[in-house]
Amino acid sequence: IRVVKRDREKAFFIKLKNPFDESEIAETYDKLKRICNKNNIKNINFISTVQKNNLYKLKDLVLEKIGIVLPKEIDMEGQEYIQEGEYVVLKHKTTFDMIDLTYQNLIKYISEKGYEITGDSIEIGSEVVVPMENGFGGIIEIFIPIKKIEKI
Known about the structure:
By secondary structure, this protein is of the alpha+beta class.
């Protein structure tokens, strides 16, 4: 686990109607790929978010929206900005069903080091799915925005 500084970035998101519907998630990735092709975006970094209020509870860690990180030179109608600032980051390199454990480790670190969460988490990676011994997975970097808790 590391603490890193991130610059403000542009992203384009599609909000999920049902975050438990795997076919909707697959269709959303397909839509995003078509958008990238149409806008000549070659290196696709997918981005998704988990709402801040669900992070501390470590419950309902479902994706709220899925999108793409936009290159600096490309603007799109409806684009959003990812906040700049300090983030804790951990690379998730196992099956997707184990992602809760990665979040637990991040939340524990945040608490132990005297930080608080300041926004939704972001997950950045490619859509590449890799068959693993215990299921399907991939490499996703999970970033949670933080700030140091002020001592009174």
